[in-house]
Design goal:
Layout: H1 5-9, E1 14-16, E2 20-22, H2 39-50, H3 53-63, H4 65-74, H5 80-86, H6 88-101, E3 105-109, E4 114-119, E5 127-132, H7 137-147, H8 164-184, H9 191-199, H10 215-241, H11 255-262
Antiparallel strand pairs: 1-2, 3-4, 4-5
Helix pairs in contact: 2-6, 3-4, 9-10
Amino acid sequence: MTLDYLDLLSNEPIAFNGVGSIKKLRMRDLCSGKDHVGIADYHAYLFILQASKQNIVDVISKQDNKAGVLFKKFSNELSLFEIIMLFPVTASALIGALDMFLEEDVWYSETEKAIVTYRDMGSGAPVILGRVTKDNYDELRDAILKTNHASVNKEEVPAVAETDDIMKKWEQAEKMNQDLQEKTDSDDYSFGNIVSKLCSAKMGITYQNVWDLTIFQAINAFHELGYQFGIHLSERVFSIHGGDHFNMNDWMKNIYSANVKKG
């Protein structure tokens, strides 16, 4: 499913064929309180959507080492959705995540091997709108993550570790990824700091209206703010020293698309 930048910036839910609609969570949903998701649950549910097969196998192994070894051996024969739904802990987390990120209510149908989406119309049986299965899960997951300015974890274990050397190289690469992640997962990128910076930037966002922003809008504005600071600095340097590398149109650059292309 291709999502235009305008679709992501919009306040409107995103229709997903065969499932329902993706909810645009707002900043107020991250706060603690009645009828709010809360920051802890948000991050927990986002994790299950970002998880790779290896992430899931790691979670399963901590609960049951034998099951973890078995899943690791046969993970190349199963889809990510199937692996998640085979284990109660991860299955429950995914059902909770979809219940939060979709406009519809959900339940898991064991007979259909699918997460069913429905709406209670207030009278009679609920109206079934669609199903999340192994065939459409990856596409739905990607769309939900994009609306939250997030992406899938890139690390993925080799489908078959034929030799100890292959697994050793994989473990070294995974360690490097973890080290890099620790450098970026700082308080500078916390939602509290994002709110503080946006409300202090004199750009029309205040402590009263920031809570109405969708999560994508808030993170996008935070990135734009940093980019604009860089542009203003370049303008000052150019006005004092001149040069051949200043471009008057740099402020127009679509930094979201640029970051997506970088991966």
